[in-house]
Specification:
Helices cover 50% and strands 16% of the residues. The strands form four sheets. Strands 10, 11, 14, 15, 16, 17, 18, 19 and 20 form a nine-stranded mixed beta sheet that branches. It has an eight-stranded mixed beta sheet with strand order 8-26-25-24-9-21-23-22, sandwiched between helices. Strands 1, 2, 3, 4, 5, 6 and 7 form a seven-stranded antiparallel beta sheet that branches. The protein contains 36 helices and 26 strands. The chain folds into five domains: 5-47 and 115-229, Calcium-transporting ATPase, cytoplasmic transduction domain A; 53-106; 321-339 and 526-658, HAD superfamily/HAD-like (Rossmann fold, 3-Layer(aba) Sandwich), CATH 3.40.50.1000; 342-522, Calcium-transporting ATPase, cytoplasmic domain N (3-Layer(aba) Sandwich), CATH 3.40.1110; 666-876, Calcium-transporting ATPase, transmembrane domain (Up-down Bundle).
């Protein structure tokens, strides 16, 4: 059996049967089926070997930050702080659980894709029709198709009677494809143009057919998508990459400094056990163990709030990823458009109408041409109203019936007055269909078809003044002008007969027609999509349309939505893309806004080319054809209502209302979330570095070790606990949606953050050592308690000051983040308890401070707040950190 791969559409039915060594009249025999089943395997989608759930779970504990935290927990338990050990272990387990759930969910995408192919098929074998499981089909089988069937394999059609197949899940085309059996001359025709082929996973919407199986399982077009999906890598989100780098950096730096502290202490003659415990405590404190908790809680809160905005997050880091998206590559059909054909333009008697009001006016004023056109729209039509008044039928026919119904013409009444007697079915050669109806004075035939095929059969047109001769060139120019606006144009005509003609060929019956007019259809944009595109642009995000539809349609929709600035803007087709090498395409990819007639592999090529240019890419879609690109993108966004299971499982976010505008709300949450994580990192690194610097610098100033291990662990617990977690509730910064996305290469410490952490950490350490030195040299035995108190309170002052990167605390409101205000008050009271509660004095080796000493501690701590407010004032006036984003 020979294999022509993608060229089956160029062969005749007999040539295909010969190459497949089959007979399309009788089908395969039992021996042939058995042999081919052994050779090709079942008609099912294969899965690559997956890791077991246990392996997935264990892999969650292999990241560097997690390993360091586990070691810190063990050491913390060794020095006697069981509470800190339990806290760290809980955080590690929580982080692993979240990661496991995300990965396990992602693996379900292939299972959803397999479910699409679970169906039965009517097959012709040994001359007998039998029903078999679709998985039992083999190349060469003869399969029968009828309306409602899911196509069970890839076919070369050998019989097609008014056969129409919905291929939107594969190609993005919203209009069902009219199939035919004749070979095509174009070898490299796009998938959607191979009208003599039918594809696995698509749906028969009308008519019937017979086909020869040319590909099964993973060799089918659906199988190729499955291959792309299974081979895709789940790349880390920008947040995960930044935090992984941050975790390694801070952990190694902290461990290095702690070793130096231990060596310096031993060199100065400090007790070995004291220095060991101090160094270990510093290591535990310096590593921001609360970071995974803060990130997880921030993401979970964001995800919870986004559900209320109709966005379901399936992978928590996706919340933050949206905040850094620079390109949104959106499928057209069902995402930016309604995936529902509508008649938007009608033409008759030399007039155009585009709204119901126009229709009503033209009908009332112009009379007969419009009445006859609406009769043709309603009667030359196989769509119908069900018992609930809903229109059922093929999308194009349903659109014609809908516009006639809206104009006041009831098909039931019209059919009663003019019952259908006969029809000439559409075929791809004539590109026309005709229905014959009885009238009071004979028979009227209504014909509809492509403008080129129908106008050529007309000599006159119906006008309000009667029949007039037509200029075919003028009418065709009018049709071309409508098509240039992205409309699918069909022409209508009629002819009177005295009696029902019989025995004549279609070409004879469809001659000498009287032209009525044109109907222009389009899959219209969603009403809210234009505003959403505009908001994306204002937020510095570039929207890109990627569709399998026609270039003219894609251009028209993109222009209406504002994706293209000009009505004749550039549209790159899949054929053009295929002819570009990788380097040439990457040079252009950031400039192209619309792609048309692309296949699934090309969607991935577009996404990856943008990623190679350093962009953070979101991909929206709803079809099976979108799934590999959804998985390859930094964040895949699927439609929850109209989308397929495969798309939803491959995506990291699902729009429950299928509303493109919901993405804008999600972007706002993502930006706010990343800002809050930066605030936590700013806070945690600054305060932890202050602790390390305080102990590291004390010996060089001739001072004893200022803090005990219990002090260090206490500060780490109370300041990295409630106040840090409360930062996740911080409201969004002003203008969060009027600034560009973060550059993908941007460091977590950009915009003056690392400078802030250094000088504020030094300031805190300096104030702490000043308090210690003042008390120590004045003979006070409270020097260690004062150092302990200043360091703790200065961290509380710091967390209040950094609630905004540049706005004053007093302008945003002290109580605008009530959880943080409450956390600061509680932490302050706990710190006072360590000083003034006798039982805590014993545990923490502290002594009650006098009122003057407490005032000194509070005053010194307040310096941090004042200094950071001055820094923000300088930033607001452009005198500091000039690269700060607006």
């Amino acid at each position: 059996m020979k294999n022509h791969h993608h060229h089956w559409h160029t062969l005749t039915a007999n040539e295909v049967a010969k190459n497949l060594e089959t007979n399309h009249q009788t089908g395969l025999n039992a021996a042939q089926v058995a042999e081919r089943t052994a050779r090709h395997g079942p008609n099912a989608l294969h899965e690559k070997r997956r890791r077991s759930p246990w392996r997935m779970l264990l892999d969650q504990f292999t990241e560097f930050m997690i390993i360091v935290l586990i070691v810190a927990a063990i050491i913390s338990g060794f020095v006697g702080d069981i509470g800190d050990t339990i806290f760290i272990i809980v955080i590690v387990i929580l982080n692993a659980a979240v990661g496991f759930v995300q990965e396990f969910r992602a693996e379900r995408a292939m299972a959803a894709l397999k479910r699409m192919s679970e169906a039965s098929a009517r097959v012709l074998r040994d001359g007998q029709v039998e029903t078999v499981n679709a998985s039992e089909l083999v190349p060469g089988d003869v399969v029968l198709l009828e309306a409602g069937n899911v196509v069970p394999a890839d076919f070369r059609l050998v019989e097609a009677a008014q056969l129409r197949i919905d291929e939107s899940a594969l190609t993005g085309e919203s209009v069902a494809v009219e199939k035919q059996i004749h070979p095509l001359s174009v070898v490299d025709a796009p998938l959607g143009d191979k009208t003599c082929l039918a594809y696995k996973g698509t749906i028969v919407t009308y008519g019937r057919g017979r086909g020869l199986v040319i590909a099964t399982g993973m060799q089918s077009e659906l199988g190729k998508i499955a291959t792309l999906l299974s081979e895709g890598d789940d790349s880390k989100t920008p947040l995960q990459k930044r935090l992984a780098g941050f975790g390694k950096w801070i952990s190694l730096a902290a461990l290095t400094i702690c070793v130096l502290v231990f060596i310096i202490g031993i060199t100065r003659g400090e007790p070995l056990l004291l220095m060991f415990m101090t160094s270990v405590s510093l290591a535990v404190a310096a590593i921001p163990s609360a970071l995974p908790a803060v990130v997880t809680i921030s993401l979970a809160l964001g995800a919870h709030k986004m559900v209320k905005q109709h966005a379901l997050i399936q992978s928590l880091p996706a919340v933050e990823t949206l905040g850094s998206v620079t390109f949104i590559c959106s499928d057209k059909t069902g995402t930016l458009t309604q995936n529902k054909m509508h008649v938007t333009t009608l033409s008759a008697d030399g007039e155009l109408c585009t709204t119901w009001q126009d229709e009503k006016t033209l009908i009332e004023n112009k009379g007969n041409p419009w009445v006859t056109l609406f009769h043709a729209l309603a009667l030359s039509n196989d769509a119908h109203l069900d018992n609930h008044g809903k229109i059922q039928g093929e999308p194009t026919e349903a659109a014609f019936l809908r516009v006639a119904k809206d104009a006041g013409w009831d098909k039931v009444i019209l059919e009663h007055d003019a019952p259908r007697l006969k029809e000439l079915a559409f075929d791809s050669e004539r590109k026309r269909m005709t229905t014959f109806h009885r009238t009071a004075d004979g028979v009227i035939a209504y014909t509809k078809g492509s403008p080129e095929a129908l106008v050529s059969q007309c000599e006159n047109m119906l006008t309000s003044s009667g029949e007039q001769a037509i200029d075919q060139a003028v009418l065709l120019q009018q049709a071309e002008a409508m098509a240039a606006n992205g409309l699918r144009v069909l022409a209508f005509a009629y002819r009177h007969w005295k009696t029902l003609p019989d025995g004549e060929l279609p070409d004879e019956l469809e001659r000498d027609l009287i032209f009525l007019g044109f109907a222009g259809l389009i899959d219209p944009p969603r009403s809210e999509a234009k505003e959403a595109v505009s908001l994306c642009k204002s937020a510095g995000i570039t929207p890109v349309m990627i569709t399998g539809d026609h270039p003219a349609t894609a251009r028209a929709i993109a222009y209406q939505l504002g994706i293209l600035a000009d009505s004749d803007g550039r549209v790159m087709t899949g054929a053009e893309l295929a002819n570009l090498d990788e380097k040439t395409f990457e040079a252009e990819v950031e400039l192209v806004r619309v792609y048309a007639r692309v296949d699934p592999a090309q969607k991935i090529k577009i996404v990856r080319a943008l990623q190679d240019k350093g962009e953070i890419v979101a991909m929206t879609g709803d079809g099976v054809n979108d799934a590999p690109a959804l998985k390859a993108a930094d964040i895949g966004i699927a439609m929850g209502k109209g989308g397929t299971d495969v798309a939803r499982e491959a995506a990291r976010m699902v729009l429950l209302d299928d509303n493109f505008a919901t993405i804008v709300h999600a972007v706002r949450y993502g930006r706010r979330l990343y800002d809050n994580i930066r605030k936590f990192v700013r806070y945690a690194v600054t305060t932890n570095s202050a602790e390390v610097l305080t102990i590291f610098l004390a010996p060089f100033l001739g001072l004893p070790i200022p803090l005990l291990p219990t002090h260090i662990l206490w500060i780490n617990l109370v300041t990295d606990g409630l106040p840090a977690l409360a930062l996740t509730a911080e409201p969004a910064e002003r203008g969060v949606m009027r600034r560009p996305p973060r550059p993908p290469q941007e460091s977590l410490f950009s915009h003056g953050m690392w400078q802030h952490m250094i000088w504020v950490g030094l300031l805190m350490a300096g104030l702490t050592l000043f308090a210690q030195a003042w008390a120590y040299h004045t003979g006070s035995s409270h020097w260690q308690t004062m150092a302990f108190t200043v360091l703790t309170l200065s961290q509380l002052a710091h967390v209040m000051a950094i609630r905004s990167e540049k706005e004053s605390l007093f302008s945003i409101g002290i109580l605008s983040n009530l959880p943080l205000a409450a956390a600061v008050i509680v932490t302050f009271m706990l710190q006072m308890a360590t000083i003034y509660v006798p039982a805590f004095n014993t545990i923490f080796k502290t002594e009650p401070l006098s009122m003057n000493e407490l005032i000194v501690c509070i005053a010194l701590s307040s310096v941090v707040f004042i200094a950071v407010e001055i820094e923000k004032w300088l930033v607001r006036h452009g005198w500091l950190y000039r690269t700060q984003r607006i």
